[in-house]
Write a structure and sequence with these properties.
By secondary structure, this protein is an alpha+beta fold. It has 2 domains: 54 residues; 137 residues, Immunoglobulin-like (Sandwich), CATH 2.60.40.420. It has 4 helices and 9 strands, in the order αβαβββαβββββα. The strands form 2 sheets. The chain has a 5-stranded mixed β-sheet. Helix 1 packs antiparallel against helix 4.
Length: 195
């Protein structure tokens, strides 16, 4: 009986660790090294950047910009196309770097509202898939500030490096492996002591 309980407990802990690792969010530094600026190549710069990556519900977009020179505002598609703030979703994020969590599947549109920045290409369209079990499209849960889920504080670990997803994956894997190792040692001790 004790051996069966040992196997069940160990198996449940191992499965829980693997599932927790699979739900890790990815932090995306918008524009990689250029950050959130009026791009020298126009809107194609950000379009090319998004096409080189995948985005899931729960991922975090980091808009690296200098406070007072740029901002970030989520808007509806027609406002994105016209570079207007008529259909804003939430309020403008004015302190850089700004962090935005993709909280629903579907298309998300962001612009800079300073001067003609948007018309010069400082706008971003991102499509989020439902990889992390988030709410369906159109089911944006309200954030505490009444806007998109965002903050201007650093994400866990403070990393805003370009495509820091590899770092997040390695840290997540290391924590998962350490958790499994500690669990195995505790169970081995339990086995020796009580069985």
């Amino acid at each position: 009986m004790h051996k069966v309980m040992f196997i069940v407990v160990f198996g449940a802990l191992a499965v829980a660790s693997v599932l927790n690792y699979g739900e890790a969010q990815t932090v995306h530094a918008v524009g990689d090294t250029i950050g959130w600026i009026v791009p020298p190549g126009g809107a194609a710069v950000y379009s090319n950047w998004t096409s080189a990556d995948t985005f899931k519900v729960g991922d975090i977009l980091v808009f690296n910009f200098i406070t007072g020179r740029h901002d970030v505002l989520e808007v509806a598609k027609d406002s994105f196309d016209a570079c207007t703030t008529d259909n804003a979703i939430g309020t403008s994020l004015t302190d850089g770097p700004a962090h935005v969590t993709l909280n629903s599947t579907g298309d998300h549109y962001y612009i800079c509202t300073f001067g003609t920045h948007c018309k010069l290409g400082q706008k971003l369209a991102v499509t989020a898939s439902g990889g992390n079990g988030g709410p369906p499209a159109g089911a944006n849960p309200p954030s505490p500030a009444g806007g998109p889920s965002s903050s201007n504080s650093s994400p866990p670990g403070g990393s805003t490096q370009s495509h820091s997803s590899a770092t997040a994956v390695h840290v997540g894997l290391a924590l998962t492996m350490a958790s499994i190792a500690i669990t195995v040692l505790h169970l081995y001790w339990f086995w020796l002591t009580y069985l």
